[in-house]
Amino acid sequence: MKKLINKPEDVVKQSLAGVAAAHSDLVVVKYDPNIVVRADAPVKGKVGVISGGGSGHEPMHGGFVGMGMLDAACPGDVFTSPTPDQMEAATKAVNGGAGVLHIVKNYTGDVMNFEMAAELCQAEGIEVASVVIDDDVAVQDSLYTAGRRGVGTTVLAEKICGAAAESGAGLKAVADLCRKVNANGRSMGMALTSCTVPAAGKPTFAIGDDEMEIGIGIHGEPGRQRMALKSAHEIAVMMAEAVLADLPFKSGDRAIAMVNGMGGTPLIELYLVYNELEQICKGKGVTIARRLVGNYITSLEMAGCSITMVKADDELLKLWDAPVHTPALRWGV
Amino acid sequence: MSVSRDNLLAWINKLQEVYAANKEYLTQLDSAIGDADHGINMNRGFTAAKDALNAALPDQADAVLKTVAMTLIKTVGGASGPLYGTFFMRASAAIAGKSQLEPADVVEMFDAGVQGILQRGKAQLEDKTMVDAWLPALDAMKSALNSSSDLKSILKAGAAAAEQGMKNTIPLQAKKGRASYLGERSIGHQDPGATSTHLMLQAAANLWG
Prior knowledge:
The structure holds 2 protein chains of 2 kinds. By secondary structure, chain A is an alpha/beta fold. Chain A has helices at residues 11-22, 84-94, 108-123, 153-166, 171-184, 232-246, 267-283, 314-321, and strands at 27-30, 35-38, 48-55, 72-78, 100-105, 128-133, 185-191, 211-214, 225-228, 254-261, 287-294, 304-311, 324-325, 330-331. Chain B is an all-alpha fold. Chain B has a single domain (3-207), classed as Serine Threonine Protein Phosphatase 5, Tetratricopeptide repeat, CATH 1.25.40.340. Chain B has helices at residues 5-21, 23-33, 38-56, 61-75, 80-94, 103-121, 131-147, 151-168, 192-207; strands at 3-4, 100-101.
């Protein structure tokens, strides 16, 4: 294992300290339990929006804390869901009196820990709504699994719900909006290499130099298929077709698209993939109205990418364009 | 014998040693079908539980288990944090006010804990989860209790059934948890949660009675 770390067990805390040092104008980091909170929280009368998950997916979620997006993030250990005391502390820290939305990615551990936290907060009289994101089309048969995983759509949901909360929408409206984004969002990922969890010290899975994994999860969980490496064009077609066919996207639809790097793939390749995606969408009459290209929901140093498409109407596009000011996403300010 | 506060403390201390010794093994099982952190998480959780007990020195049996529950909930994360946390929380409630647990009380304690796991995780038998170790162990302990009042033999029956249940997860296809995303590729691997459950019961069987 070659990593820029001091000790494996200190990675999360020391990285959080770096976030605090670099972005003290935007966020405050609190420890034990670990949470990243918007510097001006709680914003009185505004619905609070929090999320959380295992660390190792940076900039998600801590990089999305700030005006117009998340009010707080709860970072767990690497690839391990955060614990209920973190979500309880975050909920209390951001509760401006209008209730708090929990955006939860669909993983067994995340769902259970957020569920316990919501019970704790509600017992203390804080209104909490929870929405589970499950957009990964790689998981085909949800009836016989824990359901589809929550991946790229989470980033777009956090942006859109944060904008709605900022504009004064109530808890039910923000939660309904989150469900709308999830219902219209689909993603799929792929990996060229594995990643190494610092505390494990070894790659999570073995993959040959000439192989790739299509449908990979963001923790190195295997996906649909292990196959021989193909060209970016062929890979983009495979992923885009799975994503577009699932919703399904129809000719005339508009979309917010994200071509996301898994952490170890350079932007030169991500833009190349974006170009492929845009050509495929054009061919099907789907207009990419807005897009993100870069590393937003990563899997440590894994090489690979994911494609997320959210079908967007005027309401979603307007909220997408609203100002946002966070460490990892900033426009309109 | 009956189980006292001191016996419960000894069990938790033993579990800290057991999970430290099996950290690599459980993580290796988890890397095959999960996210390669189960051993790391269990080791962290029970090390914290041992430390919390040393700091708090609870004098009641149920308080020992409640301290363990709160510590696991806060330190383990993943799915095993809420599941084992709920187990110890319900187990604590089941023995509230008792200072000496007779064999029937011990079985009732495990029963309450397992019901908590079923409610929290919503898994069923043969979903390839820790439930596949817990349910047969509970059945075995209940039937052993009917024919014997010897705690050692009751716990040994439970641990043996948990071990069999753990091995029975190998040919199963996972339907819950992160392993379920593998589909058929989860077949042929032993479930890490069922394995940590077997270790928990085996430690009790070795220590008590």
